[in-house]
Design a protein that fits this description.
Layout (H helix, E strand, L loop, with lengths): L2 H38 L18 H5 L1 H7 L8 H17 L2 H6 L1 H17 L9 H7 L2 H16 L9 H5 L9 H13 L6 H5 L2 H7 L7 E5 L9 H5 L35 E5 L4
Antiparallel strand pairs: 1-2
Length: 282
């Protein structure tokens, strides 16, 4: 009984609901980051005074897993709340896939906003500058980044990745907390977003690498009905991660971010052809 209402909600409203959700979380994180710096100056919103980017980042829980499992403490700057958020995001990923990436992550959102500028400048060439072969190789770089982050964090016991993290730099670039390396990577990411859609998500995001694996086992999957598909490529063109949805029956690609822009009520011209649904393996 629950399956159809969930499908109807996500498919029929994603064109505007997703945008609202993205704006909400971007504004929320920005307010928390700004308030954290204001509190240190003696002003700010009292009930948010203890909140910081480190305390609300679920990836902080991932990088602390080794230290927590071996000696029972958190990595430097990581809070218990990061563990709680990590568990919530992981559970949601098992159900809907990496929806955190496609709906909530502020860094993914701002890359999309810059991408809109790129689309106006380069039009059809946008997101097609790299050859398919090079693009497919680069997509596995984020697993190397993930391995490096986990190793250096476990070895040092410090949150070294924050010095390179464009997400942290995005909301702290005006403060003394951010490292120059993080700001440089942020600006490179935003610049690349003008020619490639979501470059950080595709090629470098360690948390996206973790969540992307959920596409193999998620309960609600993106499915394409071959019998009604017109093979016009609408779903392929609209996919920000360049996944060839028209060639798949079920999208299990590790790069899928569950944005649902390929679904029938979003871009596919034929109703009930590309849908989000549960059950079955074919």
């Amino acid at each position: 009984m629950l399956r159809k209402p969930i499908k109807r909600f996500f498919r029929s409203r994603n064109l505007w609901v997703r945008k609202i959700v993205q704006i909400f979380f971007f504004a929320l994180i920005a307010i928390i980051a700004i308030n954290h710096n204001l509190v240190e100056s003696g002003v700010g919103i009292p009930f948010l005074s203890s909140a910081s980017l480190h305390s609300i980042c679920p990836f902080g829980g991932v990088v602390s897993l080794y230290q927590f499992s071996t000696i029972g403490t958190f990595t430097q700057k990581i809070h218990q709340s990061s563990f709680v958020l990590m568990i919530i995001v992981f559970l949601s990923a098992l159900i809907f896939g990496p929806a955190f990436c496609g709906w909530i992550c502020p860094l993914g959102t701002i890359q999309e906003w810059f991408g809109k500028i790129g689309k106006k400048i380069f039009k059809r060439r946008y997101n097609h500058f790299l050859s398919g072969k090079l693009d497919s190789i680069l997509r596995y770089l984020r697993y190397l980044v993930l391995t490096w982050v986990l190793y250096v964090t476990a070895y040092s016991g410090k949150l070294i990745f924050s010095e390179y993290d464009p997400y942290f730099a995005l909301f702290n670039f005006w403060t003394s907390e951010v490292a120059i390396s993080g700001v440089v990577i942020l600006f490179i990411t935003l610049a690349l977003s003008l020619v490639v859609e979501r470059p950080w998500c595709k090629y470098a995001c360690p948390f996206g690498a973790v969540l992307g694996l959920s596409n193999l086992i998620r309960i609600f999957k993106i499915r394409r009905v071959e019998s009604t598909c017109k093979l016009d490529g609408a779903c392929d063109i609209t996919c920000p991660m360049n996944i060839a949805v028209s060639e798949k029956t079920i999208v299990r690609d590790h790069q899928c971010i569950s944005c649902l822009e390929c679904t029938s009520e979003a871009k596919c011209p034929v109703a009930q052809t590309v849908t989000l649904s549960a059950g079955g393996s074919k």
